[in-house]
Amino acid sequence: MSLFRTELRRLAKRRFTRWMTAGGLLVLALIVVGLFFTNQKIGPDQWAEAKRSADQQHQEQMQWAEQERANCERAKAAGENVDYYPPDCAEITGPPREAIEEKWFLPSTFVFRESFEEMLIPLAGILAMVGFVVGASFVGAEWNTGGMMNLLLWRPKRLTVLLTKLGALLAGLLALAVPATAAWFGSLWLVANWRGTTEGVTSGAWQSFLLTGLRGVVLVLVAATVGFALASLGRHTAMALGGAVAVLIVGQVGLAILLSMAQVRFAQAWLLPTYAYSWMRKTVTLEDWRSCEATYTGECKPAILELTWQHSSVLFTVGVVLFLGAALWTMRRRDVA
């Protein structure tokens, strides 16, 4: 019997894998439902209601201006201290009607071209979390229950066994991530049709969406590999989960506070979520408002630091090589018992 097919079947039949997958997909489904009910399709009725709201807002501003002008004239006539009023009370006027734009009062609508790429980030984040936890549990449970030792009696090649198990994990997650991403495309397209607009989606936009979705799938595989490697290093699922809690919550929050207190420039460049975000968005621009870069016009602009997906790819590659390499080395060198 093929070891790969055996591991793939074991992965699919694990209850923890099924429950984590179902939970992740349920969260994604709830996001789609929330988008559906919190957005509206903009039509003549919505524009008419927005015009009425803008007119009402203008009337309220005019009434406020008239009341304040009357208060100003009354206070000056009474000889009161009116430093908070302008020298001429006639200067207190309401805004012109055209200053209050009707589009400000339109309900939320889902514009596919503007919103979809941003909506790929929660998809990648949730699937990456599922991949990390499932990957850690998949190998951690084998060590914890003694299943790894029994498996090595059948196939004594340690590295082959561990890499085959990792290959089955990645294949299983790929089989989850690709259809989930396709379903995410379809679901949000339907939301845009019914509760927004799909106008302006060109072939270039589709290409950008597909590349962002592909980067999301890669992020899921990276997270699963790191979780798998950490659990294999500690020979327990808790090693990976505890390490994730320590790094993401204690380490990152504590580091962010420390960097803020030390007033380090571009402190976000030291935080892992920044690189995950730049991986998905292709580039992230960090600004340091404590620095001033003068321009020819005399304007003071903050110093900037751009992090691109290439920077993130280097970090992810180093992380995978480091953790997976350590897991393979310990698998080969340490006693299995």
Which labels suit this protein?
single chain, 337 residues, mainly alpha, two-stranded antiparallel ribbon, 10 helices, 7% strand, transmembrane, membrane, ABC-type transporter activity, ABC transporter permease, transmembrane helix
Protein architecture, described:
- The chain crosses the membrane at residues 20-37, 119-141, 162-185, 205-231, 238-262, 314-331.
- This is ABC transporter permease.
- Keywords: Membrane, Transmembrane, Transmembrane helix.
- The chain folds into two domains: 3-41 and 109-333, no CATH class; 44-105.
- A two-stranded parallel ribbon has the order 1-2. Strands 3-4 form a two-stranded antiparallel sheet.
- With 337 residues, the protein is mainly alpha-helical.
- The chain has helices at residues 3-13, 15-38, 44-77, 112-145, 147-154, 158-195, 203-234, 237-261, 272-281, 309-333, and strands at residues 110-111, 196-197, 283-294, 300-308.
The main pleated sheet reads as: 2 strands, parallel
C-alpha Rg, in Å?
28 Å
Q: What class, by secondary structure content?
A: mainly alpha
Describe the global form: elongated
Helices and strands, in N-to-C order?
HHHEHHHEHHHEEH
Count of DSSP-assigned helices: 10
Oligomeric state: single chain
- Give the amount of beta strand, in percent: 5-15%
Kindly give the count of domains. Answer: 2
Pfam family, one: ABC2_membrane_2
Transmembrane segments: 20-37, 119-141, 162-185, 205-231, 238-262, 314-331
Protein name: ABC transporter permease
Organism: Micromonospora sonchi
